[in-house]
Write a structure and sequence with these properties.
Layout: H1 13-21, H2 29-94, H3 96-102, H4 110-128, E1 133-140, E2 145-148, E3 152-153, H5 155-163, H6 170-178, E4 184-187, H7 188-192, E5 199-205, E6 215-221, H8 223-237, E7 240-244, E8 250-253, E9 271-278, E10 281-289, E11 296-302, H9 303-353, H10 364-402, H11 412-418, E12 428-437, H12 449-469, E13 473-479, E14 482-488, H13 495-517, E15 520-525, H14 535-547, H15 549-552, E16 557-559, H16 574-586, H17 589-604, H18 611-631, H19 637-651, H20 656-678, H21 681-696, H22 704-711, H23 715-726, H24 730-746, H25 753-759, H26 765-776, H27 780-789
Parallel strand pairs: 15-16
Antiparallel strand pairs: 1-2, 1-6, 2-3, 4-5, 5-6, 7-8, 7-11, 9-10, 10-11, 12-14, 12-15, 13-14
Helix pairs in contact: 1-2, 1-9, 2-8, 2-9, 3-4, 9-10, 12-13, 16-17, 16-18, 17-20, 18-19, 18-20, 19-20
């Protein structure tokens, strides 16, 4: 076990569970699991809370519905009493005996008494037919008497016998009867302050004469039956029942306690429920209005009666929640422990086999994720290393094959197959790629040359292998700072077909890669070889063909069979060399350039000269240029450096045209320097001396003394001055001039050598032969014979 691991892994699981439960290790897996399981408890808790509030609402709805149902039954019951009062008043109003008595004026006669007796008989029948009627009486205004269902009374006697206990004085009672009523109900207590309770129906007769007032009918409802019905409603939920008229005035109550006047404000519509605060507590008022009258039946129930049942549900819900939370927490811990044990074992196993410290990670999953990522990174690094090594080994194998460094017993086919290079045939060719320029693909601020080269090689290798692979097989490798592609041709392909196909592939590669990626290169192609053992020969052919990019130019395709018939010699005569030197010394850029163009064009016409001869020719021309620069006494370092740069480029295989351009630039610089010297004063003297020598070279007496006398200069000064300006002594210059003139005369075979000696100003034939051999290396006669043979 790694001693660096956190000690938290060694804690008992139950202790870790408790620590995780109380948040001491908030990021551990077991803590997250416990919290996740605990969160699940919120689902039943939320359901229970919703159920509780819904149950409370349902309880309230059911209580209100029951109250309204009771009020509806109570309303129907009371409406029956009201309907009875209306019907009774109608029956009494149409009773013929009553109508007869209403017409009686003053003293009651015998007929009226008979009508009374008959009316009393009818009244007994009316009153006994309904249980809600307590009694009724009829007051006749014109005759001033009262008729009940049992007797006839004088008003004073009836008041003393029946109404004295109502709390009204006789005058008040008499005024009450004298008023006009149209079927109205009155609470005697509410309207008149009486101590007893009761509801009376009062109707002025007759109905048809609304302006008349012949009799007043008073029907006293049975208040005990009414109160009994109200108490039946009250007994259901221990509430209070009230009856109100259309003006919300109290007609009857089930309890002595009377509500305030604004208690019933807000009761709108036929039925509904409102809330009020009354007598120190909140109450729910349910009401319903009679459809036949304007009465309202009100049931006042304290809110605590609602909450008692709701609290019972709440207590039951809380108890259930507590039990659910306790059980849920226990189950959460048990499940977390059960599920965490395998993870804990896994973490311990991984920690024991890795270098990671579990104590510094956030939790177990993060630790495992980090361990897996580290393992994957190591695996990827190993794979990349293997692939890189495989690529290097593959490339090394191809290089060894191309350079012939594999033994005869080496299993080439099996080794190539091991790297995914299975041969289709024994026909091969080698393509060699020389990168000319790839600066266009990179930004100027990219300075890592190695990375740039690797990227270019990767692009070139992938594209060429893909192009070759469309018909054949191709494998690229880096070799000798170039790229080589081994092309495995088809088994039945002819050399002509192969050359045609390889031409198409290489030209398309140059076009596509140059146009898309700005990578430019030259390609050389070997001949087709019939066995894999001949691949070194094919590589050498491609290498030899690549040398000829100096002749063919860059960004071309060069086949080996194009260079096999090239000449192994070149033409660059001493005359051409001397002419080039003379023109350079004279500063004649145009003629010097013409000589250079003539020599290069003559030797490189139709690219018929081998690359070795091209190099030799270019070295000769460069040597001539250096001689010319020396003879004009150039001492500027940069001119020599330019020529040395040309030599280096020639060795690197720069093209002939590029070398020619560089030589022309060098010629221009030398000629410019010569012209600059001509413009000086001393140089004019030199020009005069040279002109005198060229004019008088035939004179046998031409010497330093003769020239100094001609220009009135001391001979020693003239010799030193001429040496400084021309680069050679005056005597050497005269002798060379006479030899060069002799060379021109030697072209004419008709002139004798002794005559040529005299014509060029040399008096002795032996002196002439000696000087000619000194400067030209051969005698005049040998030189003339060599010209005839050439």
């Amino acid at each position: 076990m790694d001693p660096s691991r956190d000690n938290s892994d060694e804690k008992p699981l139950w202790r870790r569970s408790v620590i995780a439960l109380f948040g001491l290790e908030k990021n551990s897996v077991i803590s997250r699991w416990i919290r996740s399981y605990a969160i699940v408890l919120f689902i039943p808790i939320a359901i229970m809370l919703v159920t509780y509030f819904q149950t409370r609402h349902v309880i309230e709805e059911e209580i209100n519905r029951a109250n309204k149902s009771l009020l509806s039954q109570f309303q129907q019951d009371i409406d029956n009493q009201i309907e009875y009062a209306y019907r009774l008043s109608e029956v009494i109003s149409i009773n013929s005996k009553v109508r007869q008595l209403m017409r009686t004026q003053g003293t009651i006669g015998p007929e009226d008494r008979i009508a009374m007796v008959n009316a009393l008989a009818d009244f007994k029948v009316y009153n006994s037919s309904h249980r809600y009627s307590n009694r009724f009486y009829l007051y006749f205004h014109n005759s001033n008497f009262i008729l009940t269902e049992s007797s006839y009374y004088e008003p004073e006697v009836f008041y003393t016998t029946v109404q004295a206990g109502s709390g009204l004085s006789y005058e008040e009672w008499k005024r009450f009867l004298d008023q006009t009523y149209r079927g109205q109900f009155f609470s005697m207590q509410t309207d008149h302050g009486q101590q007893t309770e009761g509801i009376s129906f009062v109707q002025t007769l007759p109905f048809e004469d609304r302006s008349g007032r012949l009799a007043t009918l008073v029907i006293e409802l049975n208040i005990q039956s009414l109160l009994s019905a109200m108490r039946n409603v009250q007994s259901y939920n221990q509430g209070h029942v009230y009856i109100l008229n259309g003006a919300n005035q109290l007609l009857a109550a089930s309890e002595p306690t009377k509500p305030t006047s604004d208690m019933f404000d807000g009761m709108i519509g036929e039925r509904g429920t409102i809330q009020r605060h009354w007598d120190g507590e909140d109450v729910i008022i349910s009401y319903i209005q009679s459809r036949s009258t304007t009465w309202k039946y009100v049931y006042v129930l304290p809110s605590k009666l609602y909450s008692q049942k709701a609290e019972y549900v709440r207590d039951l819900t809380v108890l259930t929640l507590v039990i659910a939370i306790a059980v849920g927490v226990i189950l959460a811990i048990l499940l977390a422990r059960h599920n965490y044990y395998p993870l804990q074992q896994l973490v311990r196993s991984v920690a024991a086999r890795s270098r990671l410290n579990h104590g510094v990670t956030v939790n177990e999953y993060d630790f495992l994720e980090e361990a897996i990522e580290n393992t994957m990174d190591m695996n990827n690094q190993m794979n990349r290393m293997i692939e890189k090594q495989k690529t290097v080994l593959r490339s090394n194998l191809l290089v060894r094959i191309l350079k012939g460094r594999v033994g005869q017993e080496f299993p080439v086919h099996e080794a190539m197959a091991e790297y995914g290079m299975k041969l289709r045939s024994e026909h091969f060719a080698v393509l060699l790629f020389y990168l000319e320029d790839f600066s266009g693909i990179f930004h100027k601020d990219e300075t890592d040359a190695e990375k740039k080269r690797e990227l270019v090689h990767l692009i070139l290798s992938n594209i060429v292998e893909e192009m070759v692979g469309q018909k054949y097989q191709g494998w690229m490798t880096e070799i000798d700072e170039m790229l080589a592609c081994i092309v495995n041709l088809g088994p039945d392909v002819s050399p002509e077909e192969a050359k045609q196909e390889l031409t198409c592939i290489t030209e398309e590669a140059q076009r596509f890669i140059g146009g898309r990626f700005h990578i430019f290169f030259t390609v050389s192609v070997s001949t087709v070889r019939r066995t894999i053992s001949e691949l070194p020969t094919a590589y050498q052919e491609a290498l030899d063909a690549m040398e000829y990019k100096m002749v063919f130019g860059t960004q071309t395709v060069i086949f080996y069979d194009q260079i096999q018939s090239f000449n192994r010699s070149y033409v660059y005569s001493l005359e051409n060399e001397q002419q080039l030197i003379n023109y350079v010394k004279a500063g004649d850029f145009e003629h010097a350039k013409a000589i250079l163009d003539e020599v290069i064009a003559h030797n490189l016409t139709d690219k018929g000269m081998s690359i070795d001869m091209v190099r030799c020719l270019m070295f000769d021309i460069i040597s001539t240029m250096m001689k010319a620069a020396i003879e004009v006494n150039l001492d500027q370092t940069e001119l020599y450096m330019d020529n040395m740069k040309a030599v280096e480029e020639l060795m690197d295989g720069v093209t002939v045209m590029a070398m020619k351009d560089r030589m022309i630039v060098f010629l221009g610089k030398v000629c410019d320097h010569v012209h600059a010297k001509k413009r000086s004063h001393n140089f004019r003297l030199k020009e005069n001396v040279l002109e005198f020598i060229n004019r008088e070279f035939r004179d046998h007496n031409l010497s330093v003394t003769m020239i100094s006398d001609e220009f009135d200069i001391h001979p020693s000064y003239l010799s030193r001055y001429f040496k400084e300006q021309v680069g050679e002594s005056l005597t050497d210059y005269i002798n060379k001039l006479r030899v060069n003139k002799a060379i021109e005369l030697l072209k004419d075979d008709e002139i004798l050598i002794k005559d040529i000696c005299d014509l060029v100003g040399i008096s002795s034939i032996s002196t002439f032969i000696r000087l000619f051999k000194k400067y030209e290396g051969v005698t005049p006669s040998v030189y003339r014979e060599s010209r005839k043979n050439s």
